[in-house]
Amino acid sequence: MHPALRNLEVICTMSSHTEHRSLPALASTCREFKRPALDVLWRDLQSVNPLVTCLPSDLFGSDDKRLVLQKPPDGKMWDTLFKYTSRVHSIIITPYHLRIEALSLLMLSCPSTPASFFPKLRKLTLRDDGTRFTAELLRMALVPSLVELDLVISLASSSVLPVISSLGTLCPHLQCMTVGVAHLTTVDSLHKISPFIIQPVSQLHHLHTLSLSLDLRAPLRQDIQPHLQFPGFRNLKSLCLSTHTIEYASNFFSSLEIVRSTEIKVTIRTRVLGSSSVMLSKFFAILQERCDNDKLESFSLVQLRKKVSTESGIFTSLQAFRNLTQLVIENGCNISVSDEELCQLVRAWPKLQVLKIGGCVSIKTATVPTFHGLIGLLRLCPTLTSLALFIDATNLDGINLKRPGGGLCNKHLKFLDLGDSLMESPTNVAVIISGLFPRLEEGSGVSNRWTLVNSFLSGFRFVREQRIDL
């Protein structure tokens, strides 16, 4: 055998680049290849099937259409199972499969503690069907080595909830967690499961990324207020919340004592109920009250359904977040804002790099900024790299086409989306944009006239580059 094939690092590299179906053959080649090849073969499991199929086929049978153990596993079977489970780093567990029930039955007869099944497990993806089998498997897979958990609970009465309540103790090193709660039919059901999820999650001191999806479709009565208070999250980098209405999002943040997170993203899957503008204003006020004003750097609000017509004043509470570098209000608001109001709004965010606000707005029913407001925005936020804003590009009064910003320009901007902004002269709009953003390769917009604008921008950039070469 070539000396290189006795080098463990070389063998591990070869195993990692071997096709998955060829790994068993590689493992049986010789003793030097066995351990590295098996490590790769069992490292990432797409289901629990391989674990069950490695055991004798006569170990399980059926009794009245139920899966049962035909005989207790002997020491050799346990050695075989542990030899493979000890190599698993990630596993996906999905419901409605007999193999899950089989593995659950094995657990009940296991002579060791549940945590000994997967001592090296780092990533777990589990889809719960509300049965005791998934709860038992979850208890087996929640180990101290776990750093990433992706969990979907399908029923509010799920049997996995008591197991999740021990997360803080079972998985103290958890860093990234995604939890989806589906089929919630009442507000009370949300209140009942919250202590099992929010409370233990707040104890995870190494957690930096948390994503929550609350599938609650019941109407929220105005007389119901959050009656539970949780410690909150004190050391997050990213918090994502997806729910059906802005009221539910408000209630969620109200139930927390504090949220210290660098990034917060809220997705609303249906239209805002009630007085939309009032609800949004209330939500932003709750954010200001509950979130660390100094730590928050990025905030996004995305609404996937009907837009809400409002004014810039509802964002006043967000001005408390002085360190914002990214503000995205996407698809959710048709904002009426003048040049002066736009400048007043962004004055609180001098570090802003990404700004995306609103969408298509009718200039007949709302006030929209012009290029004057855009120039003021550049003056107040000099480090902008990405901008999406609806403006009135038909009003060019007072704009010097030779020096659109009076000498002011932004050389950092790489993305510009002016949506369905109205324009009369694509040539003049291109001249102004080129003067304000000399490094911009092309803009983005809905109107066909943007094709002309981008054509002019490309020509201006070509001329500018030629002049530099000369």
Topology:
Elements lengths: L7 H9 L6 H5 L3 H13 E2 L3 H5 L6 E4 L2 E4 L5 H11 L4 E4 L4 H11 L14 E5 L4 H10 L6 E6 L7 H4 L2 H4 L5 E9 L2 H15 L7 E8 L13 E14 L2 H9 L1 E13 L7 H15 L7 E6 L4 E4 L14 E5 L2 E4 L2 H8 L7 E5 L12 H10 L5 E3 L3 E2 L21 E3 L4 E2 L2 H11 L12 H21 L1
**Strand share of the residues?**
15-25%
Q: Which overall shape is indicated by the principal axes computed on the Cα atoms?
A: elongated
Radius of gyration: 29 Å
Contiguous low-pLDDT stretches (5 residues minimum) are 218-226
**Continuous helix count:** 16
Q: Helix/strand-derived class?
A: alpha/beta
How would you characterize the largest beta sheet? Answer: 13 strands, parallel
Q: Give the strand order, joined by hyphens, for the main sheet.
A: 1-4-5-6-7-8-9-10-11-13-15-16-18
Distance between the termini: 63 Å
Overall helicity? 25-40%
Give average pLDDT, whole number: 83
Number of E-type strands: 19
